[in-house]
Specification:
By secondary structure, this protein is of the alpha/beta class. It folds into two domains: about 45-160 and about 295-370, 3-Layer(aba) Sandwich (Rossmann fold), CATH 3.40.50; about 160-290, Response regulator (Rossmann fold), CATH 3.40.50.2300. It is built from twelve helices and 14 strands. The chain has a seven-stranded mixed β-sheet with strand order 7-6-8-9-10-13-14, sandwiched between helices. Helix 3 (about 95-105) runs parallel beside helix 4 and helix 11 (about 315-335) packs across helix 12 (about 340-350). It starts with a helix and ends with a strand.
Length: about 375
């Protein structure tokens, strides 16, 4: 990417950050600084996601962020004298395995809630399971609109909806002067959702994609679309899919001489994704849905950074998502009444209105959408997300 584009990207980022300007709500309370009660039954939080294989990078960083916060809470005495345990089952990013994992987590492991389940079709597929069991699903790692509207009784979103994020990404590309935009996206509910947001956002700027191409999520047959993409001569390409697919797509584009800048969305906001790009990383644009982990003036980022330093860990955007979701879970458990059954936890979640640290989250019986935040980044020459 030309240096001029990099400079322009950097200059344009700040005005696009959607940080809440509302007065801060009372901060999340800390757990009591005492050891968890001996023999007390822990709160069990379940997760299914790809913790191994080519799509594991983001999942592992999400889990690191969640455990970073849970470990701190446990070191301070837990919640109501009980530890919080995060149980993870690997699904290799395969929908049937996600369903089986969640059935085991709910029926055998008796988890109190599910957290950060990864993938749009995966979360769609488990809706009947969580509805049957009445188990809350907190912070699904997808911004699928189907989980936001119409409201899903047992789903409590933390991250911004993909549709909103994609619309802002489209605005960003238009502000850069991009008029000939091609879009390549995975042919599933996730890809369709993001594509709708991109098309709508471009339309608001009087721009229409010059081409829209789909690829199979299993075979990742992106290469067959590239000759047509190259012939269209786009000045930007939006590439939507899992990290491994997007990395493979960018590699194929570059090998065939397509040099247009590439943009993707926040499901790929991990350092693992950057590493998978290798020499193609520079200039790739990635939308972000959590505050910059390096910003000391954002309390959420400052808190996460402090805890990460205590463990000699390097924060990433994906870790911020896990960290925020863990904070939401912890606060709901703290406010949970009675024996904190799944129904009790649901009631606590539905009444949450809190400041996570400069970022407000509020649920109600008619709104389970959580945070509204979108930022944009570009991968710099040092292999880092620059905002």
């Amino acid at each position: 990417m030309k240096l001029q584009l990099l400079a322009l990207v950097t200059a344009l980022l700040s005005p696009l950050i959607a940080v809440s300007a509302e007065p801060a709500k009372p901060s999340v309370a800390s757990a009591a600084a005492s050891a968890p009660k001996a023999g007390a039954t822990p709160f069990r939080i379940g997760n299914s996601g790809p913790s191994s294989g080519p799509n594991s990078a983001s999942m592992l960083e999400l889990l690191e962020g969640a455990n970073l916060y849970f470990d701190w809470v446990n070191s301070q005495g837990g919640i109501k004298g009980r530890r919080i345990e995060l149980l993870q089952r690997d699904d290799n990013f395969e929908v049937p395995r996600t369903v089986k994992n969640v059935e085991k987590l709910v029926d055998e492991d008796k988890v109190d809630a599910l957290l950060l389940v990864r993938g749009t079709p995966h979360n769609e597929a488990i809706l009947p399971v969580i509805d049957r069991a009445g188990v809350p699903l907190i912070g699904p790692s997808t911004g699928a609109m189907i989980l936001h509207k119409p409201i899903k009784k047992n789903v409590f979103n933390v991250r911004t909806a993909y549709r909103s994020e994609a619309t802002k990404l489209a605005h960003f590309l238009a502000l850069l002067g991009k008029q000939r935009i091609s879009m390549i996206h995975v042919d599933d509910s996730f890809g369709d959702d993001v594509a709708q947001g991109i098309v709508a956002g471009l339309a608001e700027r009087q721009v229409t994609p010059i081409g829209v191409y789909k690829f199979d999520r299993k075979t990742v047959d992106i290469a067959k679309a590239i000759p047509e993409v190259k012939k269209a001569n786009p000045d930007a390409i939006v590439l939507i899919g899992a990290g491994a697919a997007v990395a493979a797509g960018i590699e194929a584009l570059r090998k065939q001489g397509v040099t247009a800048p590439v943009a993707t969305v926040s499901n790929n906001a991990s350092t693992g994704f950057i590493k998978s790009l290798g020499g193609n990383a520079l200039g790739v644009m990635v939308s972000q849905v959590f505050p910059d982990e390096r910003l000391g003036d954002v309390p959420l980022a400052r808190e996460a950074s402090r805890l990460a330093k205590m463990k000699n860990m390097q924060l990433t955007p994906a870790m911020m998502e896990g960290f925020a979701a863990a904070k939401v879970t912890t606060e709901a458990l703290r406010r949970c009444a009675g024996t904190c059954s799944r129904a009790d936890l649901h009631r606590a979640l539905e009444s949450l209105d809190l400041d996570l640290g400069g970022v407000r989250l509020a649920y109600s019986p008619t709104d389970h959408s959580g945070i509204e935040f979108t930022d944009l980044s570009i991968i710099d020459k040092n292999g880092q997300f620059r905002r």
